[in-house]
Amino acid sequence: MPIFDRAHTDDLLTFLAASPTPYHAVANAAARLDAAGFRQLRQTAGWEAAGPGGYYVIRGAALIAWHLPPGAPAHTGFRIVGAHTDSPNLRVKPLPDTGSAGFRQVAVELYGGPLLNSWLDRDLGLSGRLVLRGGDATLVHVDRALMRVPQLAVHLDRGVNDNGLVLDKQYHLTPVWGLGPAEEGALLEFTAKEAGVAAADVLGWDLMLHDVTPPTYLGRDQEMIAGPRMDNLVSVHAGVQALIHAAGAGTVGGAAAPIPVLAAFDHEETGSESDTGAGGPLLGNVLSRIVHSQLAGSPDDYARALAATVCMSSDMSHAVHPNYPERHEPGHRPRLNGGPALKINVNQRYATDGLGRAIWTDVCERAGIPGQYFVSKNSMPCGTTIGPITAAKLGVTTFDVGITALSMHSARELGGADDPFLLASAAAVFFGE
Fold first, then answer.
1. Does the pLDDT value for residue 164 go beyond 70?
2. For the chain, what is the domain count?
3. Full-prediction pTM beyond 0.90?
4. Which of 35, 162, 166, 335 lies 20 to 30 Å (CA to CA) from residue 14?
């Protein structure tokens, strides 16, 4: 088994803190790829002259990266690590300036399926992107206590501890950010100033709230990590680091070696049906252009390449909860720091089948890491991932894995400190097959 690499987890915590939105996650991933010698390709440009080496494409908050080895035949298969950049949160509405009872507030919309109570009584920052005249975009990251969603005092909700908290999604989650009457345009003016641009030049935005408490180690022996957006930036970070390692270590290449690809999609938390989601054409278009443009292959070569392709869909998995063990399948109880869990659902909520299980078992054996299994309890509904979507979209062998965690979809999630390094180790071996 690999020795636990604290440096990898230290770096992950830095990545989480610097990536409050999917747009920041993509920018930070691209910066790491740039530093490793990868080059960005534009979708609007020709790729015929792009020879062997590392490349990536950005579209919105999605990133596809790959390393093309020299001498690869046009029908070479791909090894894809799939992940997603988005996380459930509170996002700013188009007309955000509102207020009540002498408070200035910001109108927000729920993105994905957040644990609503986890956003109460937290110091929240503001982040995202501003789209300027001409189509350029600039990132903004206000990483200080700017807003708060205050919970109703127990004196005014006497039954809350006995009957449970009930939140109205429209009225009870509007954050406060000042005192006084609402001012039209105030949030835009503030955000543009923070980004160093003129408010008049901002024609659109994608803004969201984030918890400003830094991610951290937790526990007596610091054997756990707590932080935001671990679902699914742990997988994005692992995929980036594994791809860089595989390319730099020379473990990719040769006539029989596959082409390693990282696919970090947006909008997984809302169903993946977008131009930057796994249900859209982005990944298929990139893979097609690699075969047809970079490798000068034919449609038959592309079909052969997909037939030889395997995708490792990497997304967070549930660890058994010590306070709710009855919610878990009794024969399969994955734990923190037990290694990535292979996720199985025979109704295709996860894409893993017997072949995928065999491939993953072989990867774990060669990486020298432990593995475990996640299966939902029969009486509990099962979530899903980009795995089945990717498998159906491209017709490629796919299996689902993920590190285990508690508090999934909370503003702050809890995972094992060893597991991110174990996942990245497995991804690097998978890339180097």
1. yes
2. 2
3. yes
4. 335
